[in-house]
From TrEMBL:
<keyword id="KW-0812">Transmembrane</keyword>
<protein>
    <recommendedName>
        <fullName>DUF2892 domain-containing protein</fullName>
    </recommendedName>
</protein>
<keyword id="KW-0472">Membrane</keyword>
<feature type="transmembrane region" description="Helical">
    <location>
        <begin position="21"/>
        <end position="48"/>
    </location>
</feature>
<keyword id="KW-1133">Transmembrane helix</keyword>
């Protein structure tokens, strides 16, 4: 197995990742118990997100990444003339 894949699978297990895995396993058991395909697909979705550490459940994965480059000052200088 590739070391980057192994690192992604076995590191950075935070609380929300464990919760997603627990929900996925619970839904998988319920899908088998009730023989429901839709619940099985939903459980596969949660397990996939937990195992690959993707999706909006994980920290800062849905946020917009910050730009590191400095933005030039594009505001032109405005001159005002007082009218009496």
């Amino acid at each position: 197995m590739n070391s980057s894949i192994k690192a992604k699978l076995f590191t950075n297990w935070h609380t929300m990742r464990r919760v997603a895995l627990s929900i996925g396993i619970f839904l998988a058991v319920m899908a088998v118990w009730y023989q429901d395909i839709l619940t099985g697909l939903l459980s596969a979705f949660f397990v996939f997100q937990a195992v690959t550490n993707t999706g909006c459940m994980v920290a800062q994965s849905c946020g917009i990444p910050e730009r590191n480059e400095i933005q030039p000052d594009t505001d032109p200088e405005i001159n005002y003339t007082e009218v009496k």
